[in-house]
Amino acid sequence: MRLKTFILGLVWLCLLPVLMLAVALGVDHVRDEQADSERHASLSARSAANAVDRGLASRIGALQLLVPGLMDEPSRFKARGQHYRAAFGGDVALVDALSASGGGVADPAIEVVRLAADSNRPVVTVGRGSAGAMVFIAVPVDTDGPVDRVVRATVPIERVVAALGGVMIPDSWSMVLRDDRGIEVARVGTPPHDADDSPSVGARSGVAPWTVLLYRPSSEHWGAAWEASLWIALLVLATAAIAWAIAVYGSRRLQAAMGAVTEPVVTKSAARIAEFRAVRKLLDDAASSEATMRDRAHRSEIDLEMRERQLRGIVEGASDGIVAVDDSQTIVLANPAAAHIFGYSVPELIGRPLELLIPARFRTVHAQQVRDFGVARVTARPMGTGLEVKGLRADGSEFAIEASISHVHVDGQGLFTVMVRDVTEQRRAQAEATASRNILRAALASMSDAVLITDAQGQIVEANDACRAFLRLQDKSQCPRTLAEFETLLDVFDANGRPVPPSQCAVPRALSGEVGSTVEFRLVRKDSGESWIGSHNFAPIRNAEGQIVGAVLAARDVTDLKRMHDELAASQADLRRLVAMQDQVQEAERKRIARELHDDLQQTLAAILIEGGAARQALRPGSEAARVPLQHIDELAGAAIASTRRIVNDLRPRMLEDLGLVPALEALAHRFEEHSGIACRFDGSAASSVSLAAPSVGTCLYRVAQEALNNVSKHAHARRAWIELADAAPARLRLRVGDDGQGMQPSARRKPQALGLVGMSERMRAMGGAIRIDTTVGAGTVVEVEVPLTGQAPDVRAAAVSPP
Q1: From CA 346, how far away is CA 324, in angstroms rounded?
Q2: In CA terms, which of 371, 450, 540, 777 is 20 to 30 Å from 705?
Q3: Which of 723, 699, 695, 712 minimizes the C-alpha distance to 590?
Q4: pLDDT tens digits, residue range 239-294?
């Protein structure tokens, strides 16, 4: 068997399962396409039948709505029929079933009436009328006895075709509606020339004895099968071509690879096949063993030279100083770093004694230590352990160094190598860091707030003494050192009592880059159950590159402060309720006094005035001496009545109770202008919701306006004042009282005598409103208040935070 034939057969054997799978998938695809086509046709026929049923059912339902009451009021049928025609079109008539019972007449209009009367149920049929093909619908009039009347409607056949036209079918399909006698009622589309004699699918109407038949081209049944078969054939041909190409290509490659074994140079074809490459390598190894040995020797020399260069480069490029001495402690090697550290050049050090680099007071001890180290079994150790190691520069200055020493024997001679590092700057930085750490610890110790400092992993690196008291610990050594220890010590809750997950606590939030100020958590000891409220400030610690390397947390126990704040808020709420109740009592007392003045004193003064007038009329002519005192009494009584009215109006204006806030404020502005001589206008055109306000709101705003105008007349030295009342959404009223006077000094608001402003402020707080005073020295003052229409203040009593 030739190699090409073998490879081709092997390729076909591998591709045979794939071809069989492709054929199976193609057959399955054809079946799925035919099933989908049948399903689509069935759904289309069913949709058409449902569309016809909906049209007929709506008309039958409308005719059945015409039936009730016809036995009692037949005259109403005409009006109902007009509504039916307007809604559905066609014609409707009330037919005597007895007149249509005559035999032998093949009129569909009479036949449908007879069928409906005989079956006592709605009947639908098709026939030709005067206007062409029509659908006849008959609904019997329900009676206790035999049916004697039927409501009949006619529907143009085009309406049915319109219902079928609403069903989406392909252009190559057609749809036919037939009755139970085989008569074609309607058609959509033209049957294809290659359609089968029998329809593909059909759907029965549920309302009429009709059937919807769907016709499809016969080519659609087998088009998918032919297409799939064509693709399978093309796939087989393409596979055969690929298999032949692979066999030819593979056989050529194998022949070339086998021929390359005998060639002196390995070709690419042989190099890509491992077995041929191994054979060729054995041949090459056998042919070039002598050359290989020469190459190895030459390579060893090159490697040795390279290692010497590398070692020299390492020594000269090292940042630490390297000094090597022999048994006589003479310097035989020094790198540039060592020369720089001691202030010499490299040639100046070579051949000089080692004591040149050591202060004089240490030279004897150091020389003996080097000799002892040479005879010891230890080959390397750091120098200066427990001692301060010093070096001597060329200028005679001493400096701190770190040094390590090692020794080896080369050709029977000892060689000591010393690694030297100048640690002057390191010691200085350590000293500064120690000083900074001491300052930080002193600062933390002096702080009353608990302070924690962590690294980037959440490990506690610093904590002050106040942290122990904040965490309710007996000793500072008990303070947690990691975040995990905090989680085992404390439960953390927010202000609403919800548990706070560890990731949302202060330190994790700071390590994520967040900055927080006065963030409150409730902390609960897991062992004792003791709880307290802590106010936390936290921030991340960043290095010069902006990376987070730690976090700082400051916390303060604010439990007592919160309790005092809650008590103060409760006290202020009680005080505001007391002020509101006092205002109510004061208004009630004013109302009572005003009523007594009006009902008692004014009536008494009016009686005096009437009696004085009667006395004047009773005087005899010539009694002028008595007439003058009586006239004076009349004037005094009139003045007393006017004064009493003014006092009553100031105590409790009747206009506020009788006409409302807007007329009362308008009258207040008018009286203010009369008594003070300061022009005052009132604008209430924008107060459309004032009628919805509670009576207490009107009283409160009226008293505020009174007090503000009183301040204008006493202190403002103004020429003009104004009052504005307007809506302030949502559901609030705004009152503004202003003047163009001299304004108010900032210190005037805090005077103990400024009780008017305090009274207005407390009135607003009690009513749930707000007050704002805008004043500029020399430019007047504006008092602006806003109050809700309900006149109810929210409950400002703050509930104390309790343990969860």
Answers
A1: 12
A2: 777
A3: 699
A4: 777 777 776 776 666 666 666 555 655 555 545 566 656 666 676 676 666 667 67
* pLDDT tens by residue, 94-104: 787 777 655 45
Q: Which residues of the chain have pLDDT under 50?
A: 103, 195, 197, 270, 384-387, 796-804
- Using the CB atoms, write b or e for 234-251: b if 16+ within 10 Å: eeeeebeeebeebbeebb
Q: Do residues 150 and 60 touch, judged by C-beta distance below 8 A?
A: no
Q: What is the rounded CA–CA span in Å between residue 618 and residue 612? A: 10
Contact 719, 727 (CB under 8 A): no
With residue 563 as reference, give the H or E element that holds it. helix 559-596
User: What ranges make up the beta strands (E) of 83-220?
Assistant: 91-96, 123-129, 132-140, 149-156, 174-179, 184-188, 201-204, 210-215
Instruction: Report the amino acid identity of residue 729.
Output: A
Sign of CA dihedral 495, 496, 502, 508: negative
Q: What are phi and psi of 718, to 5 degrees?
A: -100, 160
Q: pTM of the entire structure?
A: 0.36
Tokens at 428, concatenated:
């200085």
Task: Pinpoint the alpha helices (H) of 128-218.
Answer: 157-165
For residues 127 and 108, the answer to whether their CB atoms sit within 8 Å is yes
**Gap between the Cα atoms of 253 and 4, Å rounded:** 11
**Backbone phi, psi, residue 393, to 5°:** -85, 170
The SS3 of residue 440 is: helix
Residue type, 7: I
Query: Cβ atoms within 10 A of the Cβ of 114, count?
Result: 20
In sequence order, the β-bridge partners of residue 680 are 721
Quote the distance between the C-alpha of residue 428 and its chain's center: 52
Q: Which residues contact 44 (CB under 8 A, 6 or more apart)?
A: 167, 168, 169, 173, 175, 214
704 to each of 580, 673, 741, 786, how far by Cα in Å?
14, 17, 19, 11
In the DSSP assignment, the letter for residue 195 is B
How does DSSP classify residue 69? Answer: T
Answer for the pair 801, 562: CB distance below 8 angstroms, yes or no.
yes
- Give me the pLDDT at residue 798, please: 39
- Expressed in angstroms, the distance from the first to the final Cα of the chain is 91
- Decide: helix, strand or coil at residue 714: helix
**What does the pLDDT read at residue 736?**
93
- Long-range contacts for 419-428 (Cβ within 8 Å, ≥24 apart)? 419/320, 419/321, 419/322, 420/320, 420/321, 420/322, 420/323, 420/338, 420/341, 420/391, 421/320, 421/321, 422/321, 422/341, 422/391, 424/399, 424/400, 427/400
Measured between alpha carbons, how far is 326 from 409 in angstroms, rounded to an integer? 10
